[in-house]
Amino acid sequence: MTEERPAGTPVLRRMNRAAVLDAVRRRAPEPVRVAELVRLTELTRPTVAQAVEDLLAAGWLRQVAPEQATVGRPATRFSLNGRAAPVLALDVGPHTVTVGIADLAGERLATIRRPVGRRGA
Known about the structure:
alpha+beta; 3 helices; 3-stranded antiparallel β-sheet; 34% helix; Arc Repressor Mutant, subunit A
């Protein structure tokens, strides 16, 4: 019996969102324009625009206020919404246990380090 795997447009859209989110993450904390995301992901502009719209609606991205432009309309820029999901780091060593929490943009929110006795190890 063969296992059926999902295919088609929903899977492709998830892959495109993941590619765009990864490109934004790699540029963090610097905001990025849609044109830059097109270049970084090698996806078409409409595909990137749809992925950005989906990621904004899901709360993974946030729109950054445009820079003051001297000529023409300023480009809309996007960056990670660092608070969309916390990241937990745990380091268990023979003498200490360290726990850290950061946001998606890599900003450290909290760190706790506790010594561990031989009996508590």
